């Protein structure tokens, strides 16, 4: 099993595509993710981590030996192109997206892949750009994260669930920044 982080943007956008803010098309993108996952159940899965103004960030989990490329998610692109009329944003009728990032993720994220939602609705990376008053050193942040990991199974059911969800969100943020 391999898991890859993929960042997609339009390959050859036309004027409408250049002006499009992907964040306004969350429903279309979620549709493409869900359609892809239904089509390839038990073979490959994608998870939507983030939608930025001009790009999408996905995780691809695939059980296939050999060389893996971004072509593995062509079906996702075709669903948007044909089913949701995204061809109106491109000057290329054959390829909607290009992958600007295609990296295999580290082992620590592989363990949490199945727990992640297909479509992350909680956090948009660009929303974090305004956070400026964090008064925690890097070393203190690492220690706080270690403490959270150690305490994740201690406490009431609600506290345990809250800590596990928080850890999952932190891991999602970390993988988005890789």
User: Sheet bearing the most strands, described?
Assistant: 4 strands, antiparallel
Query: How much of the sequence is in beta strands?
Result: 15-25%
The figure for the number of domains is 1
Classification by helices and strands? alpha+beta
- What share of residues is helical? 25-40%
Please give the number of β-strands.
4
Strand order in space, largest sheet: 2-3-1-4
State the order of secondary-structure elements, H for helix, E for strand: EHHEEHEHHH
Parts with pLDDT < 50 across at least 5 consecutive residues: 123-134
What is the overall number of helices? Answer: 6
Explain what you see.
Mean pLDDT is 82; it is low at 123-134. Helix content is 38%, strand content 18%. The longest helix is centred in the C-terminal third of the chain and has 20 residues, at 157-176. It has one domain: Alpha-Beta Plaits (2-Layer Sandwich), CATH 3.30.70. A hairpin with a 4-residue loop joins strand 2 (44-51) and strand 3 (56-62). It starts with a strand and ends with a helix. It has 178 residues and is α+β, with helices and mostly antiparallel strands.
